[in-house]
Specification:
The chain has five helices and six strands, in the order αββββααββαα.
Length: 205
Amino acid sequence: MAPAVGETEEPAEFRRAVEKMRAAAPRPEVVLEDMPRPRNLAPFSAAWSADVVVDDEDLGSGRIVLLYAPDGHEAWEGRFRFVTLARAELEPEMATDPLLPEVGWTWLTEALHTHGARYVAPSGTVSRATSQGFGGLEGQIARTEIEIRASWTPVGDDLAEHLRAWVDLLCTCAGLPPVPPEPTPGEEGGDRVVPMPSRSALRER
């Protein structure tokens, strides 16, 4: 990513972080692409969009932005900051769940924990929106979507784990089961097939 005319050359720390994130292989159901970086949020930034696609059907989408301030940012409590969005249509039985906002936030924190992605200063919102057709669209089935907007400051050097955690969040929102961790070499039962919990099971944790 060469800087545009008039821009300051990107610091090595930021370039290394972006390279690690680009090298991180997402789940096969996720199509990850570069997108235009925001210009007004931080001195340096990089951004990606993602779509969850299964059997040619789009199940969810989102974006993740990496911000970088070489001198640090007091509100961030660090030099890097992730700003993310995950959006997907909800299963009918989950659409009216009064605990959905709390559950949605737990999906994020559990994903970060699972990948060992340490962080500080998290913030965000979890919302749901229902669309109902009228007039010419009166016969359209009502749809409810979940939208999770979140930001946090990564701790440590491996920012790729934060990308993988966010991809898992996006897949969970889209109703896909989590991918089981790879077994430790020599671990008993390493070849055993692990059943995948549904989104409803995740909600009951």
